[in-house]
TrEMBL record:
Gene3D superfamilies, per the entry: YVTN repeat-like/Quinoprotein amine dehydrogenase
Pfam families in alphabetical order: Beta-prop_RIC1_2nd (PF25440), RIC1 (PF07064)
Transmembrane found in the keyword field: no
Domain of life from the UniProt record: Eukaryota
Name of the protein this chain belongs to: RIC1 C-terminal alpha solenoid region domain-containing protein
Keyword Membrane (UniProt): yes
Organism per entry: Galdieria partita
PANTHER family associated with the record: GUANINE NUCLEOTIDE EXCHANGE FACTOR SUBUNIT RIC1, RAB6A-GEF COMPLEX PARTNER PROTEIN 1
Listed SUPFAM superfamilies: Quinoprotein alcohol dehydrogenase-like, WD40 repeat-like
Any one GO biological process: retrograde transport, endosome to Golgi
Length: 1236
């Protein structure tokens, strides 16, 4: 139910054909935008003419209407379309009315003068040429003057504002007179502004200053919003009979008495948005004629963007989307912001940060790539790769805003504003030029409201494509980095979009394998596995489908269809069920007639289909589905009429209705899953006013659950072990104005692990259940919640993102355009679920442990436990501090001192924190992550909570010792920082020394290296000394000869490393010895040279096999030996012995850098080979000939072996014997080569 901007704005500039314009030309100075009721025609107002634009797939100027011949009547002050779009009224400044008839017109082969205006962002030339042959009949319009009439009563009067209504045009003049003029020029009524107020009403001083009036009218409610400046009064006026009857005193209600500058009405949710000169936007309830008082529901402030009224100015323009879910706000000085109905900031045109020239270059490249994917490049605006013009005011796209206007279905926003030019270029013009911009938007998948399932919530819908949150999202928060993630989307087929633009509805099945979208006619189905679309096989059949709603049922798609009869003067409705693999009328599985337009659908797996129609009827159908037979049989089980004070106004065709607040946003069958064969009689109903209601059809009882709810969804029982009858009763998520609520169905707690009796049906249970509601997350106005992802336990939402500006050149003038996008924000909720279980004193420990353990396979399980412990500690400590302050209140020496409770804002549901923390500590010991959770939580929280933490788990030194004994050395290393803070650095060094010894003993050289760095730092700083230990004479002699790490300043540390290195070599733990040598910079060659005694091995064969086992090196085959030996040939007689030996000597200095082009297994092989070469090279430098022979044998260095054995002939017999003893075929082949 929200719209999010992406990409950069398009500049819709009126250029003269084959001529260049300067910014001084009058075409750059429009002053207002007006759109018709269906948002198909856009009028751009100038002082002496009006230019008409299309709002469809391609932006084209369809006509021009000049009023220059009425120059003596003044300039254009306002205009409006008739409700059916067939007529257009222009009011000139001196109260002169012109009414034109707008007729569809074919474009001539040679465009006439009014077609010289074209868009600078129509797309690429190829698309223009292809589209020029398929212009529909009504694309261009021909204005024909019907009526011209002078409506002034005095020469001093002038027009201030006008707005169309079903009866005609409502006009306000400078004398503050209101009158309604029919489309035939007849004045229905006329009244004075003062007659709308009683004598005791105070509206302040109006005076004779220049006045500004704003009007907004909606025929569905016959309400007109009006603001008058000065003094800034905002009021609602009720008209009768579609504006034909004059309002009286009782028909007027004042919303605000000062500071108001603009007003916009939203009838579906009974809202009126009032823009203030202070920059705020206040949302009021328009049902004031029943309540008798104006209620400001919320205030939309730019404080969340850290902007003030001095930056943006007052509100200059407002407009709601056609579905009432979003409102666009244009500010006087700079900026456009789009808000959701409940106050989320969905889009803004302010920069979040500045960028250097290099970053701008990378950003512009990224945007070009993104628009190439979308096919929306703007060839008329060249992006500057580098610009020296950096004199822009930081953070603004627009210098001024004149008007904002939504396109059809909320996919585009038109903004009339001035570009942020460089200061040196702007100073050369006498007036600030204004241009028409178009912003592209994506809508959430559930914004249409017809699809009710949870899977569709993760989709975003564009005008001709959709984006899935699970697969890819418009996500480039780090656009300047090399790892950019651009928008990946699925485009609807061109054959479908051509005649059915834009997409209006989207629905996904539960596993997201199939996605259905609908436009003007028909349906298109996308297979995520095959990545292919399926369309109607017959275009005639496709045009017979006017989709009102979409929903999936198993392998079938349910379409709510509207059929027009008698020249579209009446309609009939039906549900059509098609198999997903066959979109033909002959393949229909069921056809269900309906009495009203099906606005909302919901299905259950057991065949129940809930339909809510615009006749306020809820109908439940049961499908007897058999995929082997068609048609399916169905039956209507019950019908329920939702009682309201007046009939509902269909969102698709506005009808008259007197009462407000009767729209229904969502209906769902409850419970979601089926239990037994009982017919469901419970429905969750969300009204557009925000009331969430549980409706029991069987007895007609409705139970209010929450207020100010924007959307809700069921918990996904397929992806989390909660939400069914055999697990905790997590049932519903609800997005409210102040946060996200989780609702538990408490009746299921008593039925856990029990079966339902035959006398107590689930329907009876649910009707008597009591929901327990918890507020788990505070409202974040920058993040719009979507739902939760199917893995990881995260709530997901979208927030607007703007990465920076790019500099473009437009008509020779440098200006800046920002790139817009959205990014995903996630909040985990599993820790909140743990807190609920832990705080439930009626729940047994073992059952709570069982439920918590069901998440143990998740990668984030340890983080969930840490978060849960973190919140419990903060809550318990805050509660104790609060109690301590309250107990000391009487002894406070300062009189009148106020004491404020130190409550935690992490959770908003009540529980016994002490009990929950005690239970958590008991249950935590059952998990293997016990010490990991303790140390992870301790290192992430403030030290003031450590006393409470360690009072439960014991001293950190004891936990450290336990980790060392159980071999959990990485956890023990994490405790060093805690021990240092808990005690002092000397105690931490003692434990670090012990940990270093354990790491070297267990072969964890990676941890030992980090601990050694910690010990070195303490020695260098001279804070503490490393504990002494017994050093053997052999290590002392090595240290005296300079053997050891050059980077280790501690004598004891070097001795310990040399001692462990020697032990590894004696035990033939070659990999561990190499790790110590490479990690700590100890040369193996120097070590071997420094020791007096020579290493004695049991046998050469034993040494060779130990190397194979240690390095996991495969034995060679006979073919490999033949291949290697054949390379020697006769060349061995002329080989340079010195070159070969020098190569062996260089191996001891080899660097371990795997080649990037290799895969994972190849990189592993390469690293082990380099380690063998390193070991062989060091052994060669130290004259460890047995080790050199074994290393060369494993590497199959036949040439090196030949030369080495020729130099040491005494080793030949033992070497050949070694090869034969191994009983390896490859080595036996190598031995035979030496025999021959």
């Amino acid at each position: 139910m929200a719209s999010f901007g992406y990409g950069w704005p398009k500049i819709l500039s009126p250029k003269l054909h084959k001529e260049s314009l300067s910014l001084e030309d009058e075409v750059f100075f429009p002053f207002d935008l007006v759109v018709d009721e269906h948002r198909n025609k856009l009028a751009l107002l100038y002082e002496d003419r009006v230019v008409f634009w299309t709002t469809g797939r391609i932006r084209v100027v369809t006509g021009k209407l000049s009023v220059s011949r009425y120059k003596e009547k003044g300039s254009v002050r306002g205009c409006c379309f008739r409700y059916d779009g067939s007529r257009f009224a222009i009011l000139l400044e001196r109260s002169y009315l012109l009414i034109y008839k707008l007729e569809p017109f074919h474009a001539p082969p040679g465009r006439s003068s009014w077609f010289d205006f074209v868009s600078s962002s129509e797309g690429n030339n190829q698309e223009k040429e292809s589209q020029s042959t398929i212009k529909c009949v009504g694309e261009y319009i021909l204005p024909t003057l019907l009526i011209e009439k002078d409506i002034c009563t005095s020469e001093e009067e002038c027009i201030l504002a006008c707005k169309s209504c079903p009866s005609g045009v409502i006009v306000v003049n400078s004398s503050l007179k209101l009158f309604c003029i029919s489309w035939e020029g007849e004045i229905f009524w006329q009244t004075s502004f003062w007659k709308l107020f009683s004598s005791d009403t105070s509206i302040g001083e109006i005076g004779e200053a220049e006045r500004f009036v704003c009007l907004d009218y909606h025929s569905g409610t016959d309400l007109c919003g009006l603001t008058l400046n000065p003094p800034g009064i905002a009021l609602l006026v009720k008209f009768g009979d579609g504006g034909r009857s004059a309002p009286e005193i009782d028909d007027t209600f004042i919303l605000r008495e000062n500071d108001a500058s603009y007003i916009a009405l939203e009838p579906q949710q009974c809202l009126a948005a009032v823009g203030l000169k202070s920059g705020l936007v206040e949302i009021y309830n328009t049902n004031v004629f029943l309540t008798g008082q104006s209620v400001c529901l919320r205030s939309l402030s730019l404080d969340i963007l850290y902007l003030s009224v001095s930056d943006t100015g007052g509100v200059e323009s407002l407009q709601w989307t056609s579905d009432g879910n979003c409102i666009a706000v244009g500010y006087e000085k700079a900026g456009v912001v789009v808000w959701s109905a409940i106050g989320h900031c969905l889009f803004h045109s302010f920069s979040s940060c500045g960028h250097s020239t290099e970053e701008i270059r990378q950003i512009s490249t990224t945007i070009e790539e993104m628009h190439e994917q979308l096919g929306r490049m703007d060839p008329s605006s060249s992006i500057s790769r580098a610009t020296e013009k950096e004199s822009f005011k930081e953070g603004y796209l627009f210098r001024q805003i004149k008007a904002v206007c939504w396109g059809p279905f909320g996919y585009s926003l038109f903004v009339l504003g001035s570009i942020d030019y460089t200061r040196d270029q702007l100073e050369g013009y006498s007036r600030v030029p204004f241009l028409l911009f178009e912003f592209s938007f994506l809508k959430t998948g559930f914004s249409k409201g017809s699809c009710q399932n949870e899977a569709t919530r993760s989709f975003l819908l564009g005008a001709d494509f959709f984006v899935s949150e699970d697969d890819a999202m418009i996500h480039y928060p780090h656009m300047v980095s090399s790892k950019k993630k651009l928008m990946q989307h699925v485009e609807a087929p061109y054959e479908y979009i051509l005649n059915n633009w834009p997409l209006r509805s989207i629905s996904s099945n539960d596993d997201k394998s199939y996605v259905a979208v609908s436009g003007k006619h028909g349906v298109a189905i996308y297979s995520a596995r095959l990545k292919r679309w399926r369309l109607f096989g017959d275009v005639v059949e496709e045009r017979m489908i006017n989709c009102c709603s979409l929903c999936w049922y198993g392998r079938s798609i349910i379409i709510g269809n509207e059929i027009s009869i008698q020249n579209r003067k009446s309609y009939r409705y039906e549900l059509l069920i098609f198999p997903r693999d066959s979109l033909y009328l002959s393949a229909i599985q069921a056809q269900i007639p309906l009495e009203g337009a099906p606005l909302l659908l919901d299905t259950r797996r057991d065949g129940y289909v809930l339909v809510f129609a615009d006749d306020l009827q809820l109908r439940l159908y049961k499908l007897e589905s058999d995929y082997s037979k068609t048609p399916w049989t169905y039956s209507r089980l019950w019908t329920f009429h939702i009682t309201v004070e007046a009939p509902l106004a269909s969102p698709r065709r506005i009808t008259k209705w007197r009462s407000t607040g009767t729209f229904v946003s969502s209906v769902r069958l409850y419970p979601k899953l089926s239990y037994g064969n009982d017919v469901p009689h419970q429905v969750l109903l969300l009204k557009s006013t925000g009331s969430l209601i549980l409706l029991d059809i069987s007895n007609g009882i409705s139970v209010p659950l929450l207020r100010m709810v924007h959307s809700f969804w069921f918990h996904h029982t397929d992806c989390l072990p909660v939400g069914t009858i055999s697990s905790p009763p997590l049932a519903i998520w609800a997005v409210a104005e102040d946060g996200i609520y989780c609702m538990f169905d408490s009746i299921w707690t008593h039925l856990d692990n029990e079966s339902l009796t035959t006398t107590q049906s689930p329907s009876t249970i649910v009707s008597n259940c009591r929901f327990v509601t918890h507020k788990w997350f505070q409202g974040d106005l920058n993040v719009y919640p979507l739902g939760f992802i199917e893995f990881g336990g995260f709530l997901t939402g979208i927030c607007p993102l703007q990465s920076g500006f790019v500099t473009v050149v437009f008509d020779g003038v440098h200006c800046r355009l920002p790139c817009f996008g959205i990014q995903i924000e996630r909040q985990e909720f599993v820790s909140k679920l743990f807190l609920c279980w832990l705080g439930d004193e009626t729940l047994e420990d073992m059952q709570c442990l069982k439920w918590m353990e069901s998440f143990s396979e998740w990668k984030q399980f340890e983080n969930y436990l840490e978060r849960c412990l973190y919140e419990l500690l903060i809550q318990v400590e805050s509660r104790r501090n609060e109690q301590s302050l309250l107990s000391n209140e009487e002894t406070c020496e300062l009189e009148g001192m106020e004491l404020f409770p130190l409550t935690s804002s992490l959770t908003s549901f009540s529980m016994n924190e002490e009990y929950a923390l005690d239970r958590f500590m008991r249950l935590l010991k059952y998990f293997g992550e016990y010490e990991d959770v303790i140390v992870g939580c301790a290192r992430k929280m403030d030290h003031k909570y450590w006393n409470l933490l360690f009072s439960y788990v014991g001293e950190p030194c004891l936990l450290f010792e336990n980790c060392c004994l159980t071999g959990r050395l990485s956890t023990a290393a994490a405790f060093l920082k805690v021990i240092q803070e808990w005690w002092d650095l000397q105690v931490a060094v003692i434990h670090a020394w012990k940990l270093l010894q354990c790491c070297l003993k267990e072969g964890r050289v990676d941890i030992a290296e980090q601990v050694a760095v910690f010990l070195d730092r303490t020695v260098v700083e001279g804070i503490v000394s490393i504990p002494e230990f017994e050093i053997r004479e052999e290590e002392k002699r090595l240290l005296e000869n300079g053997v050891g790490s050059d980077h280790r300043t501690a004598y004891s540390l070097n001795a310990l490393l040399l001692q462990n290195l020697g032990n590894c070599l004696e035990r033939m733990q070659w990999r561990q010895a190499l790790d110590i040598s490479m990690s700590f910079g100890i040369s193996l060659a120097d070590y071997w040279k420094g020791i007096e005694s020579r290493f004695h091995y049991q046998s050469l064969a034993h040494l060779l096999l130990s190397l194979h086992e240690s390095f996991q090196w495969p034995f060679p085959s006979s073919d490999m030996v033949h291949k290697k030996w054949s390379r020697i040939g006769a060349d061995i007689l002329v080989s340079n012995d010195e070159q070969v030996l020098a190569k062996l000597y260089e191996w001891k200095n080899i660097t371990f850098v795997p080649c990037e082009k290799f895969n994972k297994s190849e990189k592993c092989y390469q690293m082990i080979r380099q380690q063998l070469q390193y070991l062989t090279g060091n052994a060669f430098a130290a004259r460890q000939w047995e080790l050199v022979l074994c290393g060369l044998t494993m590497l199959l260095g036949c040439e090196e072996l030949w030369i080495l054995l020729n130099l040491h002939s005494d080793l030949v017999s033992s070497y050949i014997e070694c090869l034969e003893v191994t009983h390896v075929k490859g080595y036996a082949t190598l031995a035979s080569k030496w025999h021959t």
